[in-house]
Prior knowledge:
Elements (H helix, E strand, L loop, with lengths): L7 H28 L8 H23 L4 H13 L6 H4 L6 H6 L3 H11 L9 H24 L20 H32 L2 H7 L2 H22 L15 H29 L1 H8 L5 H12 L5 E6 L4 E3 L5 E2 L10 E7 L5 E8 L6 H77 L3 H28 L2 H17 L5 E7 L7 H22 L4 E7 L3 E8 L13 H10 L3 E5 L7 E7 L3 H4 L1
Parallel strand pairs: 6-7
Antiparallel strand pairs: 1-2, 1-5, 2-3, 4-5, 7-8, 8-10, 9-10
Helix pairs in contact: 1-2, 1-3, 2-3, 2-11, 3-6, 6-7, 6-8, 7-8, 8-9, 8-10, 10-11, 11-14, 12-13, 12-14, 14-15, 16-17, 17-18
Amino acid sequence: MSGPAPTPRRRALVVVLILLGPAITLVMQVLGYEATAEPSRPEIAWTTLHAAVAFVFAGSAIVAYRVGEPRLPVVLMAIMGYLWIPQTFFSVIAGLGGVWPLLRSIDLVWALALGLLANAYPRGVFRGRTSAILLVLGIGVSVIRFLAVILLDQPDQPDCECAPNIYAIAEDPELFAGIDLGYRVIGAGIIMFVAGRLFWHWFRSSAPARTVAFVMPIGLIAWTAALVVEAVSYAMTRPDAGHLVVTSATVGPVAIVSLFAVASVPICYVAGSLHIRAMRGRVADLMGITREGVDRSVWRSSLATTLQDPGVEVYWWDEEDGVYRDEGDGVVDLPLAAGEPSRTLLPIDAADGTPVAVIRHDRALSENDRLLDGVSAALRLAVDNGKLRSELERNLEDVRESRQRIVEAANEARKRLERDLHDGSQQQLVALSMELRTICTAARQQGASALAEELEEAITRLATALRELRQLAHGIHPTVLAEGGLELAMRELAGRSPIPVDVEAEGELGRGLPELIESTAYFVASEGLVNAAKHSRARQVWLRVEGDGERVRMTIRDNGIGGASELAGTGILGLVDRVDAVGGSLRIRSPRGEGTTIEVELPLASPVAAV
């Protein structure tokens, strides 16, 4: 039902109102049975079955209400409990001339409600000119019969102890009999037409249409057959006025079949509605496809399975050329469905109004709006996911390229700074040291011992500064890495560690490695050894490096206190960023008290090319 979700109190009130109708019917059934003379009473089985029909409608109404069916079928099923008036109850109110005519005037309106319920299937609303004509005709004949009962019906006093109809303006049994019979015949014709239309639609149409129509025609056909037989029997045997009481003589197999058929209509309606709802649930299967974007052939086959329409087609919008294309990339002229009576088109647009796709499906599926809405949402989501995926991959590629350029630029800056220090500052300091040494020698020869000692002290400080400068230049970009390769650089790096480092190198680690991978491996190892020395309290470090021509693998393990993590301020986060920039991976295991192990894998191929 449309509108905001009902509150628990409102739901309970609706259920009570629905159940009140069959409860009233049951009371009337019991009172009428007791008030009817024993020879004229209908059989107890028929009486029980008649009362049960009202509860079947009420139960179906509650189910329809709880699953969110439109308001119209819920109201029609609920109102049946109030209109399902047992004929035996007229024995109770026969002496009330102002009551029984009113009740008598609406005692067959339930047939109109039942016909409207069938006509509203499966959408739960009246649509189309035919439905409008049937609605007007049904209401019209019901109003005419209502007026005929109120104004013309009078009981035959010898056959029925009923009070006179206080509303009657004339006594014309033949005219009333004709109107009453006409109402029954027209009502049976309407129901027969509705049932026949549903059944013919089911019989002649495709699998999707049969799924939508489902079992509703079965109950209608059975009830219509019983109704026609009853109408014919009524026309042939009806007395002029003895029609207020149902006796055992009037209850036969046809009447019992009629009750079963009437009770089957709401059950068939709810069953068909739940089946259609289950079809909508299959749209969830389509959502799995959206995770990987849009695969046109997979989408069409999955959609055909969901809609149970093997002829379904999906035409995709080509933004570049401004045309629709099929899964074979051929251009499609969309007016192709104009001359197809059995198929129609469902256009799907994005939130901004731009075309996304068009689904060509069986026209019968238009009866299931919610199913098509779910399919449209799933396809729209698939297209959006595909666009987002492509955009995300482009952004990731840009980020990777940018990060690699930053790392390469940093390495070039390191090399340039190391070269400038070596060729510039270091050479000048070496030349200055030699000049000071010459001046110191000359001062000693001239007997300036004090000056010579000061010069010696300056030369010593200069040598210390030169040594520190060389170490700084070596840390910025080690010359041994460029000259001796990764294995020699690792061993040289281990030799400068303040704690023992066991180095194991295997495979292809010579000078043929990409420079960016060499420098990344070197600085990750350097930072790992520095972290072990500063934070791990380790007594031993094991450094293993191996290359297989496709990647370089490195493991740094210590026997320290553990507890290292990316968020602990130990430099691990910087290592992760450096490794990720070249498309590699870094894993760290550092349980408390069990040491730290860092595993690094660096691909030799360009990470950008791998995307």
